[in-house]
Design a protein that fits this description.
Elements (H helix, E strand, L loop, with lengths): L5 E5 L3 H12 L3 E6 L11 E4 L5 H5 L6 H4 L1 E2 L2 E5 L5 E6 L3 E4 H12 L4 E3 L3 E6 L4 E5 L4 E4 L1 E4 L6 H6 L6 E13 L5 H7 L2 E7 L2 E8 L12 E9 L4 H6 L11 E2 L6 H14 L2 H8 L5 E7 L6 E2 L2 E3 L14 H18 L3 H31 L21
Parallel strand pairs: 1-2, 1-12, 2-8, 5-14, 12-20
Antiparallel strand pairs: 3-7, 4-7, 5-6, 9-10, 10-11, 13-16, 13-18, 14-15, 15-16, 17-18, 19-20
């Protein structure tokens, strides 16, 4: 394969690793720079697997299959009072965990050119390349730079400084609980299911994911959930999202950092409002955490020799379960564009329009889904428009 020069990827998570693997296939010498000082293993919760999410495993990985890293479901199930099944229909989805998917991609990329503890802070480019500067004083140069650094993207702040996150009006309480820690009734209701519960101006989504050690065996799994709760923007949100160190979190309050009084209130409300199975998952979670639900949309994703992908470009609410799928799809389509053109700026310019259209469409759909559950109370379990999917319901 022809030598394409050097590519730098900022961000060593799902989007960055996928991009790194695919750019290496295109003939680039790829380095990934991750700002955290330790590997990201052990972070994050559940992931709903869509075709783009697992495309690398299906088409490229020699070490894993989809069945090695995920758990299947056969039904979508809505729980009502006293755990009675309020609605159910066939639904074949597969679920994994962020940690499990990270391990797959990291194992395939390798550690040699994966650099920890390097926080990118500045970028400039000329006709021949891009210069990237780090807080450590390090400077790197490449023919291509991809910012895959997530919802708090430095690349987006440098290249689209006027783009700001928009708060959706609600937060998500998230957590994972070992299957062995819950009752048999709860395990039976959530296993083999994409499970929901609806209440006034709120809903919770639950499903099984691999255990912390990656185990897929029944009894050794975890149950993942996200419970959406309306919180007014302003002092109420600011107070709730101030962590135990006194810092106000812009994106999430991490496990172990949520003020205990808010955890206690949330658990009490879950016991009062949710079906017993959902309430039990929350009660038995050691360290629930808060995700601030945001919308982020950029006007551009291509800037000469620099690209924004994944949440660095468009960050969508979780209702379509499409975040990792979009990140992977951005990387695959970028690799395809680069394969079609030897000139990096031309390839990025050709790649951008379709990605912008997809990002804007996704944001529009999840905003409508969120409005139906959180504000208009018009969420209908039988409506296929509310199903998961990057490109549309069930797609």
């Amino acid at each position: 394969m022809a030598d394409r020069g050097r590519a730098i990827v900022v961000g060593g998570s799902f989007a960055g690793l996928t991009a790194g693997l695919l750019l290496r296939e295109q003939g680039f010498e790829v380095d990934i720079f991750e700002r955290t000082p330790a590997y990201l293993d052990g972070r994050g919760g559940g992931i709903v697997l869509q075709p783009d999410t697992v495309r690398w495993i299906v088409e490229r990985s020699h070490n894993f299959t989809v069945d090695d890293v995920s758990i299947g479901s056969s039904v979508m199930r809505y729980l009502g009072d006293d755990n009675k099944i309020a609605y159910e229909e066939p639904a074949a989805w597969r679920f994994s965990s962020w940690t499990t998917m990270y391990r797959v991609l990291f194992d395939d990329f390798g550690a040699d050119r994966y650099h920890l503890g390097e926080y990118a802070v500045g970028v400039d480019q000329d006709a021949d390349g891009v210069e990237l500067r780090f807080t450590s004083g390090r400077t790197e140069r490449a023919e291509l730079l991809v910012f895959a650094d997530g919802i708090s993207s430095v690349g987006r702040r440098r290249l689209q400084p006027r783009v700001q996150p928009r708060y959706a009006g609600y937060i998500g309480w998230r957590g994972c609980v070992p299957e062995r820690d819950v009752s048999r009734e709860t395990a039976d209701l959530v296993n083999d299911a994409l499970a929901y519960a609806l209440i006034d101006s709120s809903h919770i989504c639950m499903y099984a994911i691999p255990g912390a050690d990656g185990s897929l065996a029944t009894g050794n799994r975890q149950f993942n959930y996200i419970w959406y709760r309306n919180v007014a923007e302003g002092p109420a949100l600011d107070e709730m999202t101030t962590d135990l160190r006194g810092f106000t979190a812009p994106v999430s309050v991490h496990p172990g950092q949520v003020q205990q009084r808010f955890v206690d209130t949330m658990r009490a409300e879950a016991s009062e409002l949710l079906p017993p199975a959902a309430s039990e998952l929350i009660a038995r979670t050691a360290e629930p955490y808060i995700q601030i639900v945001l919308d982020i949309a950029v006007r551009n994703m291509a800037f000469g020799r620099v690209a924004l992908i994944g949440d660095a470009a468009f960050a969508a609410r979780p209702h379509a379960a499409a975040g990792t799928a979009k990140a992977a799809a951005d990387a695959w389509s970028l690799a395809a564009a680069l394969a079609s053109s030897p000139d990096v700026p031309s390839a990025l310019a050709a790649w951008e329009p379709e990605r912008l259209a997809l990002g804007n469409d996704l944001l529009s759909r999840v905003a409508e889904m969120g409005a139906r559950s959180q504000f208009t109370n018009s969420w209908d379990p039988a409506d296929p428009a509310l199903h998961f999917g990057l490109y549309g319901p069930d797609r």
